[in-house]
Every structure is written in C-alpha cells, then in structure tokens.
Amino acid sequence: MTPSASDEIPAPYGTGSREVPSSLSPGRPAARVRIHHLAAAKDRSEHFAMLTAYDQYTAQIFDEAGIDVLLVGDSAANNVFGHETSIPVTVDELIPLCRAVARSAHRALVVADLPFGSYEASPAQGVETGVRFLKEGLAHAVKMEGGAYYAETVRAMVQAGIPVIAHIGFTPQSEHALGGYRVQGRGDDVARLIEDAKALEAAGAFCVLMEMVPAAAAASVDAAVRVPTIGIGAGSSTTGQVLVWQDMAGLRGGEGTRISKFVKQYADLRGQLLDAARRYRDDVRSGAFPGREHSF
Active-site positions, per UniProt (predicted)? Predict the structure, then answer.
C-alpha cells in the first residue's frame, strides 16, 4: 500500500524540507511525529534521526532542528547523574527528565527508556512502569531491552496501550551478563537476533533498535521484519539512527574518555564550554565583569 501524504514525517515549521500542513499558523510547530510516520519512512526507504535528550533546552533545540525522535534514555545514568553505567538509574529519576523533554518538544516523538529492574519481574511490572512513563512522564512510547524472552511483556504493554520499541543486540543493562561492551550478532549469532526481532515484532513492538551489531547482521534483521529498525553502531541499513547527544555534540570527553567507534562528533561543545568558563573566570578575577553595562 502506498503511504498517503499524511504519513510523511512532519518537518519543523519553516524549514522547507517538507511541505508543512496548511492548517498550521505561522510560528506554530508542525504536526507531531507519530508511529505511522516511522513505518511509512521504512516503506519509502527513507531515514529518520533520533537523539537522546534529558532536559528542556536540548529538547527544544533538537526539536527545532528536525530530530524526529527524542529518547529519554537510561543513559542519563552516565550522562546526567554521574554513574559509570546505566544500571543504577531509577524510574523516579527518569520521569522528571522525561516530563521536561515532553513538555518542550512540540514535534518529535518522545520515547522513555525502561530502566533496569523496572520490567524484568513480570509483564504486569512492565505495564505498570510503562503506564507511569506515559501518565507521569508524558512520553509517547517506551523502549525496553531484551530479546524474545520479553515478547509476552511487550504484548501485555501494547495491549495496555503503551507503544514499545524493542532493543536487541548489545543491551547495556545486561553488560555484566554479556561480559562487558561486546559486539553482538557475529557469525551464527545473527540467527538469534533475527528470531528476537521477529518475536518482538509479532508481540507488537513498532520498532526494533539494534546496538553494536555488525552491519551485515543488522541488514539481515532489517530485511526480516516489516517494522522500522533503528541503529546505534549497526551500519546504515536501518531506517533510523540514534546517538547519545553528548557524544554527537562532543560534550563528553576529557582525559581517559573513550569514544565508541560508531560515534560521529558534529561539534566540540566541551571545548567551547571550557573556553567560555575560563574567560568568565578571568573576567571575574580581574574585575572586568560585571561592567557598567551589566549593572542597574
């Protein structure tokens, strides 16, 4: 079936990259990106962009830039809260971040991560957590890690009205069980990834995210499912791509910091902020700031 014009991913108002619905008034944001827009993108062999966001200002900036999906990731653990891994972050810590992003993004689809310990016990626990993210966090969908074993949890959540993105391949919440940050889906293991993706699709997941998977394996998974796939270190065959925004913009760094092979840095925000903070320090110490123009 050929997608209708309404299936096109809405563009940010005024970008000119796509036609903006005529019902929009000047200065108002474009229509919200919805699940069916992502599905239609795969049907047309198009691509969509996804970034993490954890606060008001990055959500506004990325939304204005035309990022289609914003992920309030459990990666906040090691990008906001200072943990070494994503495992310690809790639902109660993520919900306020999610609420800030959802309130600030008028176009992007906002997805919340289900953190470690919030869905593994039972499908009922997954539903309860998902409901909290939609009701309290104002998210439009959730993402959860795990393979075919969690198909029943996905099915229960979808039946409860909670849209779900499934996350397979390297799953950071399972790093201890997997023996660290290791590429998944090499050799014969690609068959397992395909089985996982198909089971999660059958359970109702509207996207399958693959992390740290060889490009050829990811292409095989993408070909095996009808729903869009999203890649992070999974080659270029997926419909969507996602990065942690601090990696993408060069905020995370410093001595001893390792940047993953799959990351492309589009800016050096760490360097710019470091320079700005040093110049501010120097102005304060010298008495140059505040000047008369900054005083009442």
Answer: 211 (proton acceptor)
**143 belongs to an annotated ligand binding site:** yes
Burial environment of residue 60 by CB neighbours within 10 A (0 to 12, 13 to 18, 19 or more): middle
Nearest CA to 62 out of 97, 12, 24, 7 is that of 12
C-alpha distance across the termini of the chain, in Å:
65
For the record, the structure tokens of 33 come out as 């990106």
Structure tokens at 116: 């470690």
198 is in an annotated binding site: no
Q: In the chain, what's the furthest Cα-to-Cα distance?
A: 71
Q: CA-CA distance, 111 to 71, in Å (whole number)?
A: 5
Q: What is the pLDDT of residues 130-142, one digit of tens each?
A: 999 999 999 999 9
Is 75 among the annotated ligand-binding positions? yes
- Tell me the CATH number for domain 35-253+261-265: 3.20.20.60
Residues annotated as part of the active site:
211
Average pLDDT, the chain: 91
Q: Hey, where are the domains in the chain?
A: 35-253+261-265, 268-295
DSSP assignment string, the chain? -PPPGGGSPPPPTT--SSPPPTTSPTTSPPPPP-HHHHHHHHHTT--EEEEE--SHHHHHHHHHHT-SEEEE-TTHHHHTS--SSSTT--HHHHHHHHHHHHHH-SSSEEEEE--TTSSSS-HHHHHHHHHHHHHTS--SEEEEE--GGGHHHHHHHHHTT--EEEEEES-GGGHHHHTSS-----GGGHHHHHHHHHHHHHHT-SEEEEES--HHHHHHHHHH-SS-EEEESS-S-SSEEEE-HHHHTT-S-STTPPPPTT------HHHHHHHHHHHHHHHHHHT-SS-GGG--
